Amino acid sequence: MSGQTQRLNVVPTVTMLGVMKARLVGATRGHALLKKKSDALTVQFRQILKKIVSTKESMGEIMKSSSFALTEAKYVAGENIKHIVLENVQNASLKVRSKQENIAGVKLPKFEYFTESETKHDLTGLAKGGQQVQLCRAAYVKTIEVLVELASLQTSFLTLDEAIKTTNRRVNALENVVKPRLENTINYIKGELDELEREDFFRLKKIQGYKKRELERQMASAQQYAVEKLAEEVSLKKGIPLDSAHNLLSAGTERDEDIIF
Questions:
Q1: Is the pLDDT of residue 106 over 70?
Q2: Does 244 fall in a domain?
Q3: Where do the coiled-coil regions begin and end (predicted)?
Q4: What CATH number is given to the structural domain containing 154?
Q5: Among 39, 23, 36, which Cα is nearest to 178's?
Q6: Burial class of residue 104, CB neighbours in 10 A (0-12, 13-18, 19+)
Q7: What is d(CA 143, CA 206) in angstroms, rounded to the nearest whole number?
Q8: Sign (positive or negative) of CA dihedral 236, 241, 247, 251
């Protein structure tokens, strides 16, 4: 169905015209707000995309340095360094919590790490390689920080992508379906109201013409009746036939006062 023929099935009245105009105003405002929301989400989406690219580029270097630090720690402290570290760890020192960030009405999940308790690693590798073990730990802490940041960015990226698609679908629906349909409905109602107004005007003109002709007929009848009455009076006064009285009145040779009196 073309855009010109799409309209709502409504009764063409003045009240419905007001309702359709109000709905069109609401749809226009909603379209503008959703368009602004889509633009804001798109800007935030591109910023997050840039951060993801840069974080992934740095992630390779960080993972390489942390793996190299682990290799150095094993080389210096020995292969059994894993069991020594596990013995000194009771609880996780780094934990991750989530919160929400509001961007143009869209709640984006955001992850951040925090330190709950400090793990005692001072005695780890005391016999040999203690400094290398601490460097390895610092490298992996840095890796965890980058991983948490990357996870937060990736989750926000997917959430924003879905929100932008939904918002754009609504914007396109308002722009290409709802607003044209309301505009066509308003034009249809206006056309029907104009046609009704022309019909009423034509009807009034016909009634006025009929009343005018009826009034002229009544006036002609009254005038004819007056002439008949006057002719009868002239016929009685003058003692002439009725036809002669009519001829006398038609000729107008005497005034009515003279004829009557």
A1: yes
A2: no
A3: 179-232
A4: 1.10.287.3240
A5: 23
A6: middle
A7: 92
A8: negative
Tens digit of pLDDT for each residue in 59-91?
888 888 888 787 877 777 666 666 666 666 667
Helices (H) and strands (E) in the chain, counts: 6, 2
Largest CA distance in the chain: 165
In the numeric block, which tokens belong to residue 106?
């869209």
Q: What is the pLDDT of residue 255?
A: 47
Whether pLDDT at 253 is above 50? no
Please name every residue paired with 91 in a beta bridge, in sequence order, or none if there are none.
none
The total number of structural domains that make up the chain: 1
Instruction: Provide the residue range defining the domain that includes 138.
Output: 14-192
By DSSP bridging, strand 106-115 and strand 94-103 are antiparallel
Question: SS3 of 154, please?
Answer: helix
Which H/E stretch holds residue 101?
strand 94-103
Domain assignment of residue 29, yes or no? yes
Query: 133-156 as b/e, with b when 16 or more CB fall inside 10 Å?
Result: bbbbbebbeebeebbbbbebbebb
What's the burial of 257, exposed, middle or buried (CB within 10 Å: 0-12/13-18/19+)? exposed
Per the structure block, which two tokens stand in for 144?
């965890």
Range name among 60-64, 96-100, 113-117, 253-257 with the lowest pLDDT average? 253-257
Name the CA dihedral angle for 6, 11, 15, 16, rounded to a multiple of 10 degrees.
-20
167, 32 contact by CB (below 8 A): no
Residue 162 counted as domain residue:
yes
Enter the pTM of the model: 0.62
Q: Identify which of 102, 98, 99 has the alpha carbon closest to the alpha carbon of residue 41.
A: 102
- 183 residue type, one letter: E
